[in-house]
Amino acid sequence: MLQDRNAAHIHAFTYRLANRWGVRIYRFANVGNHIHLLIRARSRAVFQRFIRELSGTIAIIVTGAKKASPLKKNSQNRGFWDHLVFTRIVHFGRDYEQVAQYLIKNLFEGAGVPIKKLLAQGRHVMTIRGDPPSAV
Fold it and tell me: What pLDDT, in 10s, does the model give residues 25-79?
């Protein structure tokens, strides 16, 4: 998912889809074999529709599968994704900041930066702050 063509297409499609469903993206991290999203959806139903369409389209983008010729199952009889979507509710404030920081660390690891080694040496990861989320 990090090949230039795929990464740009996945990034653009994710934001287009979020706009269509009214989902707010606070953080987006494509790590190569998985994606982290820190988002806010209006409802569970909207979230489910957003994730369903996003995961299906990412599989199509990466594999090049077409509706008439779908992706064949691999040797372990699985499709594109190995696992179901992992989600958790994040509360604004400290919890939000910790998850946002985790996404940044994960981006470094996806880019091949030995972040765990650097942190063990006492180095720090700079916090990147965007617009603070508004409580609605």
Answer: 988 888 777 888 888 889 999 999 999 899 888 888 877 766 666 555 554 555 6
Whether 28 is covered by a domain: the verdict is yes
pTM of the prediction? 0.67
Q: What range does the domain containing 65 cover?
A: 4-90
Within-domain flag for 33: yes
Q: What's the rounded Cα separation, in Å, for the pair 111 and 67?
A: 32
As for how many domains the chain has, the answer is 1
CA dihedral sign, ordered 59, 77, 37, 115: negative
Instruction: State the Cα angle at 16 between 13 and 18, rounded to 5°.
Output: 105
* Backbone CA torsion sign across 53, 26, 106, 29: positive
CA contacts within 13 A on the Cβ side of 91? 3
In a domain, 30, yes or no: yes
